[in-house]
């Protein structure tokens, strides 16, 4: 593996439809303002901007100066253009960045759409990634062992390439656009201590949040410039965030402690590609042990329980349920973990359906449908709607349940992509119903 690869910002890999309703798409963005204190945001900004994902430190701030142009090459899927247009609009409006689309091959940022297989030839665990000083995957292949594509050698940003898969779901393509374009423009690091951000390798958030847009707006504030040191940037941040986020001025800092590498490695082994089921469960148990040893009571402990629950479902569903209950408890009730709670709710409601408790399932699901919609997570929204449909039918609301299931399919096409993936999700959720199981069919 090339030495430079661990320092490449990536999005971690996660695992034309006929006969289904048209694909649904999101329209008006609904981001929430950050809830963090400005003191915490300043600390986060420094750790995001002066450290790479590998842990290597960066000596100076680098960014684009002047207007930024973006072009698309390769073989983009139909969904890429509208999603990229929406993203660039948000970056202009919410982050104040002068960025626009162009057809010029000399654009500052090239989004090249290639196959997943091509991406994984270079980075096996990545769904997508961004590299400086190249415009094509072939050019990266030629230079990947050189200083040319090293982020630590960069003094300013002028030319970058983002490599996006063109043979996956529309949501995965869009998620890659959001995360990789954000890192092309600004911070290169990910921090698990951030609950409300795409700059977090837990992949819970799939589109840029209000927190992320505030970080990017600060990144391009006139008070900062290329070549500034960490100390110089730190001196400017209090006044920058006071202007950009006045509501964060009076909030007390949480000062969450840093996330140790051993926990990060354990979580990535548990939920990433490459390990067998026993190794995944062992890694999840290690992550939970580390979280407890660190004395955490925040979203990282909750996520540790969530990971353990996910991996125990197939072998011990009752124990998995216990971990999901603890996960929901530790995620708390704050707005910055609402999306996390929606994920856990999907697991708890699935268990309720399989136990024949349809009303409990509906109670668990209902508050989170709007959360999934607001965060533009079509895969989660479709899953919640399918679960709701199943619970409705179990409780005797057959016609209403069938309509909810039908409505879910347009979101499922965006979130899961292919015909077989959508139908597989339908079969998976239908199999939870104990009545269907007793009849031996779905």
If you had to describe this structure to a student in words, what would you say it looks like?
It is a single chain. With 442 residues, this protein is α/β, with parallel strands linked by helices. The chain is built from 18 helices and six strands. Strands 1-5-6-4-2-3 form a six-stranded mixed β-sheet. Helix 8 packs antiparallel against helix 9 and helix 15 (378-394) packs parallel to helix 17. The relative contact order is 0.12.
Question: Could you write a compact summary of the structure shown?
Answer:
With 442 residues, this protein is of the alpha/beta class. The protein has helices spanning 38-49, 80-95, 116-122, 137-143, 170-185, 210-219, 230-244, 261-271, 277-293, 299-312, 317-331, 338-354, 358-365, 369-374, 378-394, 398-416, 419-430, 434-439; strands at residues 10-12, 68-74, 99-101, 109-114, 126-132, 160-165. It has a 6-stranded mixed beta sheet.
Query: How far is the N terminus from the C terminus?
Result: 46 Å
* Radius of gyration from the alpha-carbon trace, in angstroms: 22 Å
Record the strand order, biggest sheet. Answer: 1-5-6-4-2-3
The parts where pLDDT drops under 50 for at least 5 residues are 14-18
Quick check: average pLDDT? Answer: 93
Structural class label: alpha/beta
The largest sheet, given as strand count, sense and whether it forms a barrel, is: 6 strands, mixed
Approximate shape: globular
Order of helices and strands: EHEHEEHEHEHHHHHHHHHHHHHH
Number of strands: 6
């Amino acid at each position: 593996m090339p030495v430079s690869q661990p320092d490449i910002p990536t999005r971690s890999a996660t695992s034309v439809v006929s006969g289904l309703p048209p694909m649904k798409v999101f329209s008006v963005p609904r981001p929430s303002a950050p809830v963090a204190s400005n003191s915490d945001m300043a600390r986060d900004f420094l750790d995001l901007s002066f450290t790479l994902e590998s842990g290597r430190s960066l000596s100076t701030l680098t960014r684009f100066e002047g207007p930024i142009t973006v072009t698309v090459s390769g073989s983009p899927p139909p969904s890429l253009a509208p999603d990229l247009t929406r993203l660039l609009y948000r970056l202009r409006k919410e982050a104040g960045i002068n960025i626009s689309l162009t057809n010029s091959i000399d654009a500052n940022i090239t989004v090249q759409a290639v196959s997943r297989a091509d991406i994984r030839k270079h980075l096996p665990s990545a769904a997508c990634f961004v590299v400086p000083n190249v415009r094509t995957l072939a050019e990266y292949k030629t230079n990947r062992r050189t200083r040319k594509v090293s982020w630590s050698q960069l003094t300013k940003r002028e030319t970058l390439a983002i490599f996006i898969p063109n043979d996956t779901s529309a949501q995965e393509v869009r998620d890659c656009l959001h995360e990789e374009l954000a890192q092309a423009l600004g911070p290169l690091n990910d921090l698990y201590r951030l609950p409300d951000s795409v700059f977090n390798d837990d992949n819970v958030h799939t589109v840029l949040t209000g927190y992320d847009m505030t970080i990017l707006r600060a990144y391009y504030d006139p008070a900062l410039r290329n070549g500034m040191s960490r100390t110089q940037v730190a001196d400017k941040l209090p006044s920058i965030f006071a202007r950009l986020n006045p509501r964060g001025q009076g909030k007390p800092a949480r000062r969450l402690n840093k996330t140790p590498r051993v926990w990060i490695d354990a979580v990535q082994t548990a939920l990433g590609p490459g390990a067998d089921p026993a190794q995944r469960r062992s890694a999840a148990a290690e992550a939970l042990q580390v979280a407890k040893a660190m004395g955490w009571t925040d979203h990282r402990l909750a996520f540790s329980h969530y990971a353990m629950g996910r991996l125990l479902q197939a072998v011990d569903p009752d124990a998995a349920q216990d971990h999901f209950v603890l996960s929901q408890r530790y995620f708390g009730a704050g707005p910055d973990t609402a999306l996390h709670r929606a994920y856990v709710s999907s697991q708890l409601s699935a268990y309720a359906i399989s136990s024949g408790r349809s009303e409990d399932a509906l109670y668990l699901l209902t508050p989170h449908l709007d959360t999934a919609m607001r965060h533009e997570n079509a895969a989660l929204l479709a899953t919640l709607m399918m679960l709701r449909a199943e619970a409705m039918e179990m409780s005797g609301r057959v016609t209403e349940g069938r309509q909810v299931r039908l409505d879910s399919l347009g979101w499922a096409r965006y979130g899961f992509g292919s015909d077989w993936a959508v139908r597989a999700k339908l079969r998976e959720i239908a199999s939870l119903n104990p009545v269907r199981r007793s009849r031996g069919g779905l």
